[in-house]
Amino acid sequence: MRQHAAAKPVLRQWFDESFDPLLSDVATWYRAEAVAAREPADLEIGPDRRTLSPSDFGFHNAIRRQDGSLAFVDFEYFGWDDPAKTVVDFLLHPGMTLPETLKKRFAGRFLRAFAFVPGLAARARLVYPLFGLKWCLILLNDFLPDRESTATAEVRTAQLRKAVALVDRIRAEYRSNPFLA
User: Fold this and answer.
1) Sign of the dihedral through C-alpha 61, 65, 68, 70
2) DSSP string computed for 115-158
């Protein structure tokens, strides 16, 4: 318990100095860019802009079959969703370690495959930093009180390091996205 208590000031400082200011900047940017793209920022997207989505799509949820093909597993959150979420989650998922060239190829092919979805490319660019910040919070789940007895100081330190790196990445990429230009 002492280790967790010692981590709290470091975590609080990171939120105050890094995460929260970036969240504020991204929210302001998002609202302005959404107006410019004519994408409503606060409305649910219509059925014509949704697709069936595995939600947690990526190679971390794939099994290679004996014939070399891939089978995707883990459809716990499967359902109707914005394909913009699918593409940005794939690009941002902390468990995905792909070179930028493959991420660009995936994003390009994904957007072409879903070109029939109105406003998809603009929406993906807009929500990219928001989902990146969401992933930062997910990375920090080991700081939650219900995990106090199970997460070690080393695990928390590693997760905070990943969240710091992801915030730095979002800060560098959100205005001119290298994958969703």
Assistant:
1) negative
2) TTSTTHHHHHHHHHHHHHHHHHHHHGGGGSGGGTTTS-HHHHHH
* Backbone torsion region of residue 16, taken as left when φ is above 0, otherwise alpha when ψ lies between -120 and 50, otherwise beta: alpha
Note every long-range contact of 105-109, with CB atoms under 8 Å and residues 24 or more positions apart, other chains counting: 107/179, 107/180
CA distance 11 to 177: 27
Cα–Cα distance list, 140 to 14, 25, 47, 135, 155 (Å): 12, 21, 33, 9, 10
How close are the terminal C-alpha atoms of the chain, in Å?
A: 45
Query: What does residue 143 show for φ and ψ, rounded to 5 degrees?
Result: -90, -5
Least Cα distance to 90 among 109, 67, 63, 117 occurs for 109
Give residue 72's Cα distance to chain centre.
19
Distance CA 93, CA 59 (A): 10
Tens digits of residue pLDDT in 160-169: 999 999 999 9
- In the structure, what pLDDT confidence band is assigned to residue 18 with cuts at 50, 70 and 90? very high
- Confidence (pLDDT) at 46: 80
Q: Compute CA distances 33 → 30, 36, 124, whole Å.
A: 5, 5, 12
